[in-house]
Automatic annotation (TrEMBL):
Biased composition, class Low complexity, residue ranges: 38-61
Protein's name according to its UniProt entry: Sulfonate transport system permease protein
Domain ABC transmembrane type-1 intervals: 124-301
Organism: Chitinasiproducens palmae
Family the entry assigns: Belongs to the binding-protein-dependent transport system permease family.
Keyword Cell inner membrane in annotation: no
Length: 322
């Protein structure tokens, strides 16, 4: 055998794997430290599976999106819980603070007791009764006058100066005048709430009816619709979402004004309960009234949103974003 043949035979013998290592898996890295192509492929496949929409850990998966939406919706309540915890700790640790800021557990126990007795619920019922009476009157007048001034140039020119003169007057300045004409009984509460709720509804109704696209009116005329049919079938559906925004704003304003009137000229209602607690130095009862008022406002707002969702489910504001 020649020297070349001996060299090729020795190289071939070294290149063949041994029997012990013939069935073993190849190492993950090469001799120079770089990963083998098979390792790169497995890592890429794993990363791709994590980012796949079908993976529960992918940001695009429905499970991940629903979890993120749930956490986002709960963030507000988590903030309230943190504030209540800070309130409780401050009331228990800061010397003398409990005299003006009682612990949360004391306020909760007193609230439960007041609700079981029913006295505070009776006061709240008086407030809501007169609030809704004035609110409905103000909404009816606001929608009617807003629709008239928005659709009629004559009505706009006739009423615009009077409305713009009276709108900047604060309700606190109007209440003493109403006392001269309505006294300090239920008429004062209804009148003050009606005036306070009128302007938000009127402003939104006027803007909604005024902004009806001209093409819609021209199309209605081309189909032979009468002015009344155009108002009911064209302008009113276009204006409803904006009018509801004004009504929602007026609802919170009505509650505030009702409590304000009960504080200055009333012998019943949640406003009278809060003021009476402050005058008698019943600090815990004072906080009970304020927190109950806040909860009432929240429930009213959520209830209005539910009604709004039923009335205009087609509107873009009702689309739930996840």
């Amino acid at each position: 055998m020649s020297s070349n043949d001996s060299l090729h035979a020795s190289l071939g013998h070294e290149a063949r794997p041994s029997d012990a290592t013939r069935g073993a898996a190849p190492p993950a890295d090469t001799s120079d430290g770089r990963p083998r192509p098979s390792s790169i492929a497995r890592a890429t496949s794993t990363a791709a599976s994590l980012h796949s929409p079908h993976s529960p850990y992918s940001p695009r998966s429905p499970r991940f999106r629903h979890l993120a939406a749930a956490l986002r919706r709960a963030s507000g309540w988590l903030l309230i819980a943190a504030l209540l915890a800070a309130w409780q700790r401050a009331a228990l640790t800061v010397p003398g603070l409990a005299e003006v800021l009682p612990p949360v557990d004391d306020v909760v126990r007193r609230t439960v007791g007041a609700l079981q007795q029913g006295t505070v619920l009776l006061q709240l019922g008086h407030t809501l009764h007169w609030m809704f009476a004035g609110y409905l009157i103000g909404c009816a007048l606001g929608i009617t006058i807003g629709m008239a001034t928005g659709r009629s140039r004559f009505a706009h020119d006739l009423l615009e100066p009077l409305l713009e003169l009276t709108r900047p007057v604060p309700i606190a300045a109007v209440v003493p005048l109403l006392m001269l004409f309505l006294g300090i009984d239920a008429g004062l509460k209804v009148g003050a709430v009606a005036i306070a709720s009128f302007f938000p509804v009127f402003a939104n109704a006027y803007a909604a009816f005024r902004s009806t696209p001209r093409t819609l009116d021209e199309t209605a005329r081309s189909f032979g619709l009468t002015p009344w049919q155009t108002l009911v079938q064209v302008a009113l559906p276009h204006a409803v979402p904006t009018v509801l925004v004004g009504m929602r704003l007026a609802l919170s304003v009505s509650l505030v004004v009702t409590v304000f009137v009960e504080m200055i000229a009333g012998n019943s209602g949640i406003g009278y309960f809060i003021l009476n607690s402050q005058q008698n130095m019943a600090i815990v009862d004072l906080y009970v009234g304020v927190l109950l008022l806040a909860a009432t406002g929240y429930v009213l707002n959520r209830g209005f949103l539910l009604v709004e969702r039923r009335l205009i489910p087609w509107h873009i504001s009702q689309r739930r974003r996840v």
